[in-house]
Write a structure and sequence with these properties.
By secondary structure, the chain is of the alpha+beta class. The protein is built from three helices and four strands. The strands form two sheets. Strands 1-2 form a two-stranded antiparallel ribbon. It has a two-stranded parallel ribbon with strand order 3-4. The longest helix has 20 residues, at about 35-50. The protein starts with a helix and ends with a strand.
């Protein structure tokens, strides 16, 4: 799930958005962008583990066996990059050492 997909699901209009701010959902409520990003990343993480589990041959995958790489546009502000990294960490995609590739 991408940020665009999450925004569409929430009914957010337009394509330009500063991920460091709150966004307005279709119902008029404001939600912190970091929450939307975190939940989208958590959804993707859970989907990956669901797909990998049948391939584990009886051994469950451990979090430390996965290296997450998240790329963001190089034109994003440092604050926006920080929000993305914090959302990834909050989603359980690693500690502060998460491989975070910033660039195009």
């Amino acid at each position: 799930m991408t940020l665009r997909m999450a925004r569409r699901a929430l009914g957010v209009k337009g394509t330009k958005h500063d991920i460091t701010k709150k966004i307005s959902a279709k119902n008029g409520k404001f939600v912190d962008s970091k929450i939307v990003i975190r939940e989208a990343l958590r959804f993707m993480k859970d989907a990956v583990f669901e797909r990998l589990e049948p391939l584990a041959l009886g051994e469950p995958f451990r979090e430390e066996q996965i290296q997450w790489v998240i790329t963001v546009p190089g034109m994003w502000s440092e604050e926006a990059k920080k929000v993305m990294k914090e959302a990834a960490n909050d989603a359980g995609m690693g500690e502060s050492g998460t491989n975070f590739d910033v660039g195009a």
